UniProtKB/TrEMBL annotation, chain A:
Location of the Aminoacyl-transfer RNA synthetases class-II family profile domain: 321-437
Ranges that cross the membrane: none
EC number: 6.1.1.20
Intracellular or extracellular location(s): Cytoplasm
Gene Ontology terms, MF aspect: ATP binding; metal ion binding; phenylalanine-tRNA ligase activity; tRNA binding
Keywords associated with the record: Aminoacyl-tRNA synthetase, ATP-binding, Cytoplasm, Ligase, Magnesium, Metal-binding, Nucleotide-binding, Protein biosynthesis
Chief site of localization: cytoplasm
Organism: Nitrosopumilus ureiphilus
GO terms classed as biological process: phenylalanyl-tRNA aminoacylation
Gene3D superfamilies assigned to the protein according to its UniProt record, in alphabetical order: 1.10.10.2320, 1.10.10.2330, 3.30.1370.240, Bira Bifunctional Protein, Domain 2
Taxonomy, superkingdom: Archaea
Name of the protein in its database record: phenylalanine--tRNA ligase
From TrEMBL, chain B:
Family: Belongs to the phenylalanyl-tRNA synthetase beta subunit family. Type 2 subfamily.
Chain coiled-coil ranges: none
Protein name according to UniProt: phenylalanine--tRNA ligase
Family matches, as PANTHER family: PHENYLALANINE--TRNA LIGASE BETA SUBUNIT (PTHR10947:SF0), PHENYLALANYL-TRNA SYNTHETASE BETA CHAIN AND LEUCINE-RICH REPEAT-CONTAINING PROTEIN 47 (PTHR10947)
Phylogenetic placement of the source organism: Archaea, Nitrososphaerota, Nitrososphaeria, Nitrosopumilales, Nitrosopumilaceae
Signal peptide (from-to): none
Principal location: cytoplasm
Any one GO BP annotation for this protein: phenylalanyl-tRNA aminoacylation
Organism name: Nitrosopumilus ureiphilus
B5 domain: residues covered: 270-345
NCBIfam families (UniProt xref): pheT_arch
PROSITE patterns tied to this protein: B5 (PS51483)
Length: 462, 547
């Protein structure tokens, strides 16, 4: 049976044929492979029973801090003896010159009768050519030496001294070829590659993560029986505000909240009946001078409700489920939680199912489908719905309740003037908020930064 | 939405037997959002249609109802009195025709209540007062004023010591130098005459809707209050006064009436509104089956009065609840009294069949094609800046569509093209690995009776070997696979593209957009270290053809 070998395997086998017993470190040098490649190559050959790995443990010793100092400058007692070569010296002088090694040096020298001391002076008595331990210090030097190569008697004294000798055990591996491997003919041509090696990252082309959330929401509403309507982002104030019972002097209509298009007014905003009825409703309920020129001013829609109400006013359905989805605008300072332009979903139900409890039920079903199950409803206020509610959803990651969709039933002051006779449930909210929960973002601006690093790495399948 | 800071302990005192937790659990069900809590203090956001919730007295009334401690409507007890009169001169009729007022006596006036009254006054001014234009309030120390008063006009040289000042100032000086004068002076227009309230000794009490006189300043030494509201509609002025009267009564003051005469004015009546509601409307709207008595008790919990009258329920609404327009508002009051937390959501499967809009469908298919071609989708704002659209790209600005008073420099004009935004995206990613290929579809805007919105489609490719052939192949394939059409490219020039490497995209003999290698100067402006090619075409013709 012919065997296919990886280039790494081939290099290791060839090297071992030349030099039959090698450590991994030696193999690195002889094959010029990386430590990681050698490790894997040996592992493969072992599994194929082509290589034998002998592991042996060896006790080794090396010099500690004081050992190294003695290796470089001589043992403390040797340094003492050297100072006495030219005659006796005063104890106090020597103490100064030798410092902290003076104590151990004089102790040993006295004990071995190398020196003689009087009350003040010290003189040489005999000078051995080699002191105990000196042979071993020289032998070890800066290396690690197997314990079995050392003269145990000479070592003994050093072992007792602090920080002279470090003992350790190392494991060495030696690789040899098995007999069958020695017989292998290694050819240079093989199809094998390093399948375990690291490869470069490639980036997938994809839709924008926010778009994925928008599409998901769109599909949920379609499966709930809703049809999508679309409309312009630029709208007359009439449809954005007046038709929704927001009086012309209401603070929400001011420049500081709404984007008005500089010098752009619509000539035709609605049919004369619609204009007449809407303005009458305003005059009667809000008591102010309704000005058609104010209604003509073009704005960037502040909600998609203008698209919905226009659709309802044109079609006057007895029964309908529609939704619109798209960009809306608010004149806000951009921050981690506010954008000037963001996406909104808005849905309406017209007809016999139009009850507040059903409206709540649709919300609950929607949230369930995007994975939010902990929700509650609180009353709130919108100028064009009555009753009005808001949904609070619980976010586990942030550990708090977050406001999501607002909802309600269109006020009769909205529907009647436009000839809509049936009850209309309406709800809506920002999509970015949902997407932030999904992608665990704390800064909404991230969606429009088009930071390639994020676009390329945000988890797609959620 | 306005925010008010209250303390739990004072709410507990006002509401009666109630725990702090009961209060904090109930606040959201009155429609009040708890913004933040710090031990005893709680910051609450309330709806602008409920100015009575701007003080703890108003919130306490609501909580009492919701918790069933005290239900039914608050009745204003106003002592009839002849002592307090205001006569109105005809000269005000063209400027600020109406005045109304009330006297409140023997309440406890401390720093806390002064602060609450000021907050309530500001919220009323901003909301229903439409920044004092419709109606505005003055609260005075009653004992500093000698009745009867006269509501009249004066010229702009009239002098008095205004609030927070110790020197006399003329009306003109006040309007030109004092903050409130500068802020609200425009309400008075350019007329030489301005409204004024004078007392029996010819002392100035107030210069509505701008500022009170210093002499009537309310301090902790004040015992009795005089409140006046002036405005351009009698009903609005009385609505505003009724909120203040209700709150002052709840705060422990005894109310006495102010008689007003002359020039279409009359004394305030604070008359409750009567609206009748059919129980079926409530049940149908809410999806419930409540008995008439349950509906009545729910209305009472919302601090309204209600009695059964034939098939209907007759509801009495105190004057301060002017947010109630008709029966549908009562449905909401029933829902609140019943308790929103008691409404169980129901779900009835749809009888209708849902449908994605064909435009969305086609755009989604185009997304799939571009992804197949290796392009990453970018999303940019349609509200962008002159810098991105013109300065950086050298494009010729024509008929710019700007918005007024944008708070953000980067969002001042509507885009008429998508490609500059994609170039901007490349410039922010020069440290990321190449090739970088982006596409975007979205709305572009142009002036046209009044504005036309079209959907454009743009793609961009940046890497060291990017070239015309590459980008033309991409667009050609996208259009062929997406819409079954072929394209032609005819030599043209465009400042965004390199001279001689730019073409008009033509489909079915009609120009649709532009394609080419991006001008090296533009690339330099953006410090992009690579060649860039791109295209932008209008999609509207394809998308709307058969939809």
């Amino acid at each position: 049976m012919s065997q296919v070998f990886h280039d790494i395997e081939k290099k290791i086998i060839s090297s071992l044929k030349d030099n039959p017993k090698q450590t991994p470190e030696l193999l690195e040098k002889s094959t010029k492979l990386s430590p990681d490649q050698i490790r894997r190559g040996i592992e493969w050959l072992k599994l194929k029973e082509l290589a034998i790995v002998d592991e042996s443990k060896t006790s080794i010793i090396s010099l500690g801090k004081n050992g190294i100092e003695s290796f470089q400058k001589g043992l403390p007692e040797r340094r003492l003896l050297n100072l006495l070569k030219d005659g006796p010296r005063k104890l106090s002088e020597l103490q100064k010159e030798l410092g902290y090694i003076f104590g151990p040096a004089i102790g040993l020298a006295r004990k071995n009768n190398w020196v003689q001391t009087s009350s003040e002076e010290i003189s040489l008595q005999n000078l051995p050519s080699e002191l105990p331990g000196e042979k071993t210090l020289k032998q070890i030097g800066a290396n690690q030496i197997p314990l079995n190569e050392i003269d145990k008697n000479d070592l003994l004294g050093l072992l007792k001294r602090p920080d002279f000798i470090i003992e350790d055990v190392i494991t060495t591996k030696e690789i040899t070829l098995t007999d069958s491997a020695k017989l292998l003919e290694i050819s240079n041509s093989s199809g094998a590659i390093d399948v375990e090696a690291k490869v470069p990252q490639v980036f997938v082309a994809r839709t924008h993560p926010l778009k994925d959330t928008i599409d998901e929401i769109r599909e949920i509403f379609v499966t709930l029986g809703f049809s999508e309507i679309i409309g312009n982002m630029t709208q007359s104030s009439f449809w954005n505000f007046d038709a929704l019972f927001t009086p012309q002097d209401h603070p929400a209509r001011e420049l500081q909240d709404t984007f008005y298009l500089d010098g752009v007014s619509a000539k035709k905003i609605a049919n004369s009946e619609q204009i007449k009825k809407v303005s009458e409703s305003h005059k009667k309920n809000w008591r102010y001078h309704w000005d058609i020129n104010e209604a003509r001013k073009m704005v960037l829609r502040t909600h998609t409700t203008c698209v919905t109400i226009k659709h309802l006013a044109e079609n006057k359905p007895d029964e309908a489920r529609v939704f619109s989805l798209g960009r809306v605008f608010r004149n806000e300072k951009v921050s981690y939680k506010h954008l000037v332009e963001f996406n909104q979903i808005e849905g309406v139900v017209v007809g016999k199912d139009a009850t507040l409890r059903n409206l709540m039920g649709i919300q609950r079903e929607f949230y369930k489908r995007i994975g939010i199950t902990k929700i509650k409803f609180w009353p709130t206020f919108f100028p064009y719905t009555e009753p009005s509610l808001q949904t609070m959803v619980y976010n586990e990651r942030l550990g708090k309740w977050i406001e999501l969709f607002g909802m309600g039933i269109f006020r009769p002051e909205v529907t009647k003037p436009l000839g809509i006779s049936k009850s209309v449930l309406a709800w809506g909210g920002g999509i970015e908020r949902i997407a932030m929960l999904k992608y665990e973002l704390d800064d909404v601006r991230e969606f429009y930064n088009n930071n390639l690093n994020w676009l390329r790495s945000a988890t797609k399948c959620q | 939405m306005p925010v008010v800071e209250l303390s739990y302990s004072s709410l507990q005192k006002l509401v009666g037997k109630v725990t702090k937790k009961q209060i904090s659990d109930s606040l959201p069900f009155l429609g009040l959002d708890v913004e933040s809590e710090d031990k005893d203090l709680v910051r609450i956001e309330y709806s602008p249609n409920r100015p009575d919730y701007s003080t703890d007295f108003g919130i306490a009334l609501g909580l009492q109802g919701l918790l069933g401690i005290k239900t039914g409507a608050i009745k204003l007890n106003i002592k009839k009195s002849n002592k307090y009169r205001i006569s109105v001169k005809p000269s005000v009729s063209k400027i600020r025709p109406f005045v109304t007022g009330i006297v409140a006596k023997n309440g406890k006036i401390d720093d806390k209540i002064i602060k609450q009254l000021m907050v309530m006054q500001e919220d009323l001014h901003f909301g229903i007062g439409r920044k004092r234009k419709k109606s505005s309030i003055g609260i005075h120390d009653l004992d500093k004023i000698t009745f009867p008063l006269v509501y009249t006009t004066t010229n702009r040289n009239h002098k008095f010591v205004p609030l927070n000042s110790d020197t006399e100032m003329s009306i003109s000086e006040i309007l030109n130098t004092v903050y409130v004068g500068k802020e609200y002076g425009s309400i008075l227009g350019s007329s030489s005459q301005v409204p004024l309230i004078l007392d029996a000794n010819q002392k100035t009490v107030s210069f509505p809707p701008i500022i009170n006189a210093n002499i009537t300043t309310v301090t902790t030494k004040t015992k009795n209050l005089f409140v006046e509201v002036t405005g351009i509609h009698k009903e609005d002025a009385e609505d505003m006064l009724s909120v203040i009267a209700t709150i002052l009564q709840s705060a422990g003051f005894t109310l006495e009436n102010v008689q007003i005469s002359g020039s279409k004015n009359s004394s305030p009546k604070f008359e409750p509104k009567k609206i009748s509601i059919n129980p079926d409307l409530a049940n149908q709207t809410l999806g419930l089956d409540l008995s008439t008595s349950k509906i009545i008790s729910s209305l009472k919990k919302s601090r309204l009065n209600a009695v059964s009258k034939g098939k209907n329920i007759l509801c009495t609404i105190p004057a301060y609840r002017f947010d109630i327009f008709g029966p549908m508002d009562l449905v909401e009051e029933i829902a609140l009294g019943y308790g929103i937390q008691n409404l169980e959501p129901t779900f009835s499967p749809s009888q209708t069949i849902g449908r994605i809009n064909p435009v969305s469908n086609k755009l989604k298919s185009l997304d799939q094609i571009m992804i197949g071609l290796g392009y990453l989708e970018a999303l940019n704002s349609s509200l962008t800046s002159k810098r991105v659209l013109y300065d950086m790209t050298g494009r010729n600005p024509s008929k710019i569509l700007s918005v007024l008073d944008s708070k953000s420099q980067e969002h001042t004009i509507l885009r008429n093209s998508i490609l500059p935004g994609l170039l901007e995206n490349l410039s922010r990613n020069i440290h990321e690995s190449y090739p970088q290929k982006l596409f975007e579809t979205g709305s572009v805007f142009s002036l046209d009776d009044p504005i036309s919105e079209k959907i454009n489609f743009s793609g961009i490719s940046a890497h060291k070997d990017a070239n015309f052939t590459e980008i033309k192949s991409i667009l050609q394939s996208a259009l062929k696979i997406g819409f079954g059409t072929d394209l032609e490219t005819k030599t043209s020039s465009d400042s965004l593209f390199e001279e001689g490497r730019c073409a008009t995209v033509i489909v079915n003999n009609a120009p649709l957009g532009v394609i080419g290698e991006i001008n090296s100067k533009v690339i330099e402006n953006y410090k992009i270290q690579s060649k860039v090619v791109g295209f932008e075409i209008s999609l509207s013709d394809f998308l709307f053809k058969s939809s």
